[in-house]
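Run log, item B.
One chain of 275 residues. Sequence copied directly from the ordering sheet:
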Amino acid sequence: MFDLHLHSHHSDGTWSPQELVEHAVKIGMKHIALTDHDTVSGIDEALAAARGRVQIIPAIELNTVFCDGSGASHDVHILGYFIDRKNSDLLATIDLQKQARAAHVLDCIKLVASAGVEITVESVQECAGQGAIGKAHLTEAIVRAGGAPDLTSAYEKFMVRGSAFYAPRHSISPYDAVEAIRKAGGLASIAHPGKEDHVVPLIESLHEAGLAGIEAYHRVHSPVLVDRYLQMAAHRNMIVTGGSDCHGPYEEYASMMGSIVMPEEILKGLSLSRV
């Protein structure tokens, strides 16, 4: 019973780290990884709440942007496990991400305003609480301002590539993320890689740069896709990771913690790779 992909309200989840831990204990989790986006600020709280009842794997999910050979850009997320959360290189990378995120939020707000929907940094931050602002909070602010009837509609109108109101995000590259995670003593794994054409060549290139694993098990991956990445990982002697990508209960979305069933060898492989 383990889940290697979970978020708290320190990024775009709804639970505090303590609430996340309590739910994990309640449903019988033995090992969980807190993988908040671009921050390690919730890890200490999770460790304190665990009290030996569940193992907390210190982790992070770094949001990056990859530009392929055609000039198209793609969002690529890199997970880092067993990181030293106080490492100076990792903290410097997180600071760069915070600056990029703040600039992106302002760009989004301007474009949303051009559609006649008035939201502000303050109204978006109110949706985020104490956590870093993300797309979920922008869409919630849009709904509250009357710009869309629900979160899904707001996301599809304002947040997807191709929308007239989409603001491209500037960020570090996945290579930068892998390097920062390695410098922090962690293991880097590409999150929910999906099936776009650029993914497999990118994984091959990142592996040469130090990428240790592939998140094969994820709720957006079909059984065929899971099998493809299991075979790729085995062929390249990479670790396999997986998890529910749970963000806690959020309006119509229920908790999914523990919903992705994985063989115990996945956890063993992750732990052995630290040696």
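Observations after the first pass:
- The longest helix spans residues 88-114.
- The longest strand covers residues 55-67.
Flagged for discussion on Thursday.
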